[in-house]
Amino acid sequence: MKKIPLLLCIATLVTLTACNEDGTIKGDQTDMNETSTHDDMDHSGHSSSGDVPEGLQEAEEPRFQVGSDAVIQTDHMEDMNGAQATISGAYDTTVYAISYQPTNGGEKITHHKWVVHEELDYAGAEPLETGDKAIIDTDHMAGMNGTEATIESTEQTTVYMVDFTPVSGGDRIMNHKWVTEDELRTP
């Protein structure tokens, strides 16, 4: 049997292995057209700098004041429902649940909550309606920025940016965007 140098074996393996942007190995790509709900996904990178989009107006009379505590009553992310949160921002705007195909590949995301009106390119002044299309101009999650979204639902409300520790423990999530007023309760 002929011996193959170890370096040649490693180079061949590296050449044949494709990786996602996060460093994980890509699997069988035959299921790329399947969809996944936002709630089915691991969104551990779903945090931000705290910057808000231009034109987003601070809420004049939010039910939850900046710096106050609240309990999250939704599961946009794993281990979010029931978490104690601190309000880091409150804004009056139109929010949308959207579906989109990530720019970095993978399954289509459906019912992603939430994107605010000010995070959509060329959306105009009036709120969009269910079924409308818009280009996402935010990066709540990898592969989101620059892709076309379909509006699934529209709501005029106060939205909150929150800091929280997942109910199972772990690192504190800072500046999570967005939680609506109906998705929070007083502790």
TrEMBL record:
Keywords: Signal. This is DUF1541 domain-containing protein. Residues 66-117, 131-181 form the DUF1541 domain. The keyword Secreted does not apply. Residues 36-45 have a biased composition (Basic and acidic residues). Residues 1-20 form the signal peptide. Residues 22-58 are annotated as: Disordered. InterPro entries: DUF1541 (IPR011438). It comes from the Bacteria. It comes from Alkalicoccobacillus murimartini.
